[in-house]
Amino acid sequence: MKKDRQSIDTAGKLSQEGFLKKLGIPKTFLTFHNLGSSTSEFVAIGMPYMLIYEAADRKHGELHSLEFTESNKNYFFSSASRLDLAGKRSLHSHDFYELTIVLAGELHLQIENEIVTYHAGECCLCNKNIRHKELHDSEFEIILFLFQEEYIKSVLEQDLLYDEEGRSCTSHTFFHHLFAENQKLSFYSAKEYIDFRRKTRFDPDDFYRLINALVLELSESRSGRNYMVRGYFCRFIAMLGDEENYHIQAHQTRISKEERLFYQVSQLLQNRKGRISRSELEAELNYNSDYINRVVKKHTGQTLSDYSRSFLLKEAADLLTNTDKRVGEICEELGYTNRSHFNRLFIERFGMTPTEYRETEPEE
Length: 364
Known about the structure:
The protein is an alpha+beta fold. The chain folds into 2 domains: 16-252, no CATH class; 257-360, Arc Repressor Mutant, subunit A, CATH 1.10.10.60. It is 40% helix and 24% strand. The protein has 13 helices and 15 strands. Strands 3, 4, 5, 7, 8, 9, 10, 11, 14 and 15 form a 10-stranded antiparallel beta sheet that branches. The chain has a 3-stranded mixed beta sheet with strand order 1-2-6, with no helix packed on it. The chain is globular and about 60 Å long. The two termini are 18 Å apart.
């Protein structure tokens, strides 16, 4: 897991520690960047997936949350702050997929410049980097599923079906639609979300049975839990994709020139594993590096240097997971001459040493 502490930036925005304290939250597995921004905050998770239960209690002005992660550490907290404080926060974005499932009540979601309403049994799947937030102006209970792309691809690729001749195949899902859109367009520029609206044949018993079974598996440390979670999730995806249960509609949102520049920067950093100089960025994009730095800071809360480093550390994590290279070899390959410095940066990003990461990271 990632460390919670973030430093207070020069603009005087809240640190993550101060932000949580203000909301009465002792701990969270989420990492927030750009807190207090009038444009958008950026949220990250340092794990394959995460599940969050939220209940908005308007009568008492509280937001109750419960987080579930693969680490089997569940933290319950009840916000002592008023809901209007949460509702006034700016939009947020992230580099993972978010599936919002409404269990009860009515949820109002602001997605970019549009406000969309969802009722019990309905869902919304947000693609990467769409700015959105829950408005907290109504009573609701929801589940948020947060998925890294590598994890959800692995889950779907391993969900094999066999025909009568024993040939295997995988199902095509709405996630595959987003994967394809993200490949066609520039980095994270497919600012798309998908609605799942209940039809008359919707079976609430199946809906709640699958959700309860999934949460139960996550909340208990039992043999086979990882496989059971994957199985229940595949069944839930199949239920959402059943046209007898749901009317499914994809919506595309527009992006500004500034956002497009941010995505171009992100694309270059991903392609180069974070190893690109400011002068190279200026030559590639035809923008001054100071302006590029301001755009990156605005969208992520990180400097261009820190944002670049996140791609480099992601490459280190991939090498630890997918190769047998020693940590020293990986340091050298990525251009780090000081092993201690590399370890410190890795711990800040992933909450554990490279050796611990290799030992605990599940095989895909």
